[in-house]
Amino acid sequence: MSTYEISIRPFGVHAILMEWPQRVEEAILDDILQFTWFLEEVGLKGANWEIVPAYNSVTLIHRERPIVFEEFAKKLRDWYGRPATTRSGKRWLWRLPVCYDPEFAIDLPEVADRSGKTEDEIVRLHTSYTYTLYCIGFLPGFMYLGGLPKELEIPRKPQPRSKVAKGAVGLAGKQTGIYPQESPGGWNIIGRCPVPMFDPKKEEPCFISVGDKVQFYAIERAEYDLHKIEAEVGIYKPEKSEWDA
């Protein structure tokens, strides 16, 4: 590996933070995921670690004991300096339905007006691109999806709403995402997804992982209502295919 200059620092008594260059680039994310896969399958396999990759970092958390920083940091640098001996795990392309009905797309007129496009053109743009999941945070299951076309880049709302609906699909800066639960929020809402993004009762509460791809497709209101019912009774299965990176 050893593709980038990295920094390693303590992140509390039980955690350590590895940081890559502070740029949002898929090549950096690929390098992080490659090293994460090595840690999971070789370096830390079978150990009681939680490994959390994100945009430019990997956080390593030991669930039971404090970390001896200097000793473990040296081991991490040695591992990162080795030639890659493992392939990264499977990455998936998920197709998620979004209803852009006016009831749900409360900021779509403003987004269209600011971009100089029609609302239909905004929907076509949003559904024409494939996005990369760089980070899960803010709320459990909230996906920060990069790769937004420049025409859809729009600042966060200056005054956040006190309540954004579960499933709301929003735009902010260079990213798009789905609110996994009702919460305050300042993203520009252009639709709603009927697929639950987070279920604490499942072994994997968030079924989409950092590094996966997401593509949205438009559905009518009746189909949204159907998928929502299917999701509530546990029979809806999101579409996925293996992503050939």
From TrEMBL:
Picking any one GO molecular function of the record gives: ATP binding
Query: What protein name applies here?
Result: Sensor histidine kinase inhibitor, KipI family
Q: Which Pfam families match?
A: CT_C_D
* Entry keywords, A to Z: ATP-binding, Hydrolase, Nucleotide-binding
Positions of the Carboxyltransferase domain: 6-208
